[in-house]
Structure formats: C-alpha cells, structure tokens
Design a protein that fits this description.
By secondary structure, the chain is α+β, with helices and mostly antiparallel strands. The protein contains seven helices and four strands, in the order ααβαβααβαβα. 39% of the residues lie in helices and 14% in strands. A four-stranded antiparallel sheet has the order 1-2-4-3, sandwiched between helices. 28% of the residues are buried.
C-alpha cells in the first residue's frame, strides 16, 4: 500500500518513531492532556483501568528527577534529560482482572492494559506533532523515592515526550507480514 492509499491512522502508525533528541521547547499542557485522554479511553481487562500517569513537565523537577533516575547503571538513558516531558506510567492492579486472571491464565493482563493505554498516548502524541520514546531503563527505586510513590502503585515505564527538530528515518528492518501472521493454521 503506498502512502496515498493509507488512512490517517495508518499514516500516523507508519511515521511514528522513537525520538531521543528533543527541541528545547515546552509542550503545551493542553496537548499533554489530549494525549492522556487518549490513554484514558483505552480498553482494559474487566474495565479495571489500572493505569495512572505521573507527568513531569516542570524543568527543575524533571532535571532533579532525571539526575537521580538516570544515574549509575542507568546513565545510558541520560538523553532523556533533554525531553521537555517525562510521563511515568504506573499501575494499580485490580484484584479480579489482574491478580486472579494472571494466576489462572498465566497472562499479565495488567501489562497488556498498560501497553494499550501507552500506545494510545504515543499515537495521539504523534498526531499532535510530538515525539515520544518508551523507556524502561531507569532506576525504579529512585523514582519511587523521589516522588514518594506509595507501594500500591507499580512503576511500569517512562515515556519521554517533546517536539523534535527532525524525525529519524526508519532504520530497522521489519519482518514481512507473511512471516508474522497466518490465517486459519499455524505457519512456519
């Protein structure tokens, strides 16, 4: 399918990249709220809506947090210092949908729910001209201490967000659809 035949959503999905270089330009709160609203509308197991989002957009708070969370072993993530916004994705598991469901099905429904909500957020950001990058490489204990996050919340990941000067081209080679999807019987 060529670019002219793509739907608006397909264009957003196709153009989205992980952005690690951001402009020194604040992100408007209204755009952040629009992204959070997209995440809020995501489906979840038993409608548990386990996600919580801690938005860090104050430059001084973000800088102090980044110095702590991206230190030592996690210093490879120092590029995130430049992101105007960091969004911590937290979860508050539901007893029925997540804990019992995981024991019976051996599937982490909570992680699935958070992934769906997070992807809604990043796709909305892309539509608004914002770059994002999922981050898992940070110190969760330091993050918990820095923000005094109660134990009832599990820290899942961070999203770096901001405006970018230039979007990188697609550098990864994607497997063809025929290699990853089959109809009516399992493939090779």
């Amino acid at each position: 399918m060529n670019e002219q035949e793509q739907t608006p959503l397909q264009k957003i999905i196709h153009s989205r990249r992980s952005i690690r270089r951001f402009l020194d330009k604040p992100v408007e709160r209204e755009k952040i709220r629009t992204c959070l609203e997209a995440a809020r509308l995501a489906p979840s197991a038993e409608n548990a809506q386990p996600w919580r989002f801690l938005v860090v957009d104050d430059p001084d708070t973000k800088s102090a947090f980044a110095r702590s969370a991206f230190s030592g072993l996690y210093s490879q993530s120092k590029w995130a210092f430049e992101a105007p916004v960091l969004i911590m994705i937290l979860s508050r598991p539901s007893v029925v949908a997540h804990q019992i469901g995981q024991r019976l099905q051996k599937i982490d429904f909570q992680a699935i729910d958070l992934g769906i909500a997070g992807e809604h957020l990043v796709l909305q950001a892309e539509e608004l001209g914002l770059g994002t990058c999922w981050m898992g490489w940070f110190d969760p204990q330091k993050a918990r201490r820095f923000f005094k996050i109660p134990r009832k919340y599990k820290i899942a990941s961070l999203l770096a967000m901001g405006y970018y000067e230039k979007k990188p081209g697609r550098v990864r080679k994607l497997k063809p659809l025929e290699e990853i999807a089959w109809f009516n019987k399992i493939g090779e």
